[in-house]
User: What shape does this take?
Amino acid sequence: MLRCCLLLLTLSFSTALPAQLPDSCRLQFGTNLAGPADWGSEWPFVNIMKYSRQWITHNRDWVAGGENAWDTQLLDHIPLDENGYPLRLPVADIPGAEGPQIVRTVWANTEALPPGEYVLLYDGEGTVDFWGDATITESGPGRVVVEVTPGVADIMVLELLSSTEGDHIRNIRLLLPDTEATYADNPWSEAWLEKLAPFQRLRFMDWGHTNGSRMQQWEDRPQVEDYTYTPDGVPYEWWIELCNARQSDAWVCIPHAADDDYIRQMAELFRDELDPELTIYVEYSNEIWNWIFEQTHYCHDNGDQDVPWPERIVPFVQNALDIWTETFEGQSGRIVRVVGVQGAWQDVSNRIVFNMVPGSYDVFSPAAYFGFTDEGIAALESLGADATGEDVLQWAAQGLRERSFGWLKSQNESIGQELGIPMIYYEGGQHLTPQPFGSEQPYNPALVEAQSMPGMYELYQEWYDSLRTLVTAEEPALLMNFSFIGPTSGRYGSWGLLTSQFYQDAPYEDAPKYRAVTDNIYNCQPVVSASVPEPAQRTANWAFPNPGSGQFQLRLPASAVRYDLCDKWGRIVQEGDYKGEGQSLLLTGPNGLYLLRAYDARHRLLGAQRLLLVR
Assistant: This one.
């Protein structure tokens, strides 16, 4: 029953579709999740200690005449347990230190957090302190209550002033407001889950810190009990638990320097622990042709020096995918083997894909970004500080039509049609950044302004409609949006569909990118039975008011005799007989997205409509 609910929200890659694929269903969607970072604005876990910065060392006491650095960079001299907690504090007699050392951690974007009382729990004996946007209001052994007022200093600091050797402070949990009683049973933020509800495919590239990953041997990988996940990424166990609970397909990226044993054990873990009904998209690293990333240099420097670049990349991709293929022997239908390519560099793409062993991969994948042409950048530079969000949207539209779409059309013709293999997109969306990337430009404020303007919604719709024209097969293409939730930046790009999981809610008028993607998701209601008549495939206004506060009036098709409701997890939470137009439906669950489905007397699905409960 769980899987059935979710079929209306998504199709796995291998799902059979009618020969005449409806235009609205030619493009399916997932999203990349933002990686763990103390400066980010995506908080999947109610225990935000997992997204704290790696320990910083500093002097326990102010040293007169000393440097008293914010970070004395002496962490290597602090003895740590297997999960990264100091075995004792303070630590004295460190060579080069101005005095005894203690540790602190920070959250550097508190304006992305909700205000209220946070509870810090820990095991062991010691002393803790908070400052910045957090004030201690209650303190006792193992439990501290802090009042957080986000955005004042835009930083929150936790310090371990002392920790008793033999019973050191460990297992620290810093819990979002009102989650102390529930965090053990539900580790996920409800606000995050609610906004993630439309996406039933998740790419974990940033969760694994794939770019520049330090993973080489299996024992190197992050562990669930690590005090923070920001150094090396979220453990695979959480990826699997999230996908199993939500029934979401997983897109995983293999660390570029992982040895064969790591690659094999990673494959075995997902094979054995992920629900076998779910699809796994597997890719070697990420953008291994992109010179800003360490993995590109790794492949270049460690590959066969007698083989030219980019062909030198291919053995790394081939080996990783071959190991996964062997591991999934007899279960090959569970995985989709992905070869990533450079959307704007056709020669590089060709020289990678055409050198892979035929049949050893399933799809090739460029990114689906639209951005500026050189003419657009020149125009914005000319406008300087006078540039507006409207100017940005105008030149982004020109780039979409005259450059970005042409690149992907070329990829589809040169590789997809030539080899008869599907083209899907590992990332995609707007790519509106300054030239050069990461620079401070007078027009940067306009880049940020454009992100929340209504014209961005229309630009996304045009982009998706353009990409649909490239799909002529019976299978839909897949686009993994980049990224889910993130802060805005004129220098480094504003990648998130949302800027906050706590402060943005339906109808998302300030989040046109999120509305555009989710509208496209819900505009396609795939056929789940050949016997369903064509008109029933369309979404109708079956319940109103929608959004509603809990009391909905039903107006289902005349042939409907039963209905049910699925929650964001895909679980049926309510069902009943349909008595006719005007029947009242009382929805008492938590705020969020639900799916209303209707059935006829022969138990055939007539269609579905999303309901949004907002009290």
Remarks:
- The first helix runs from residue 2 to 6.
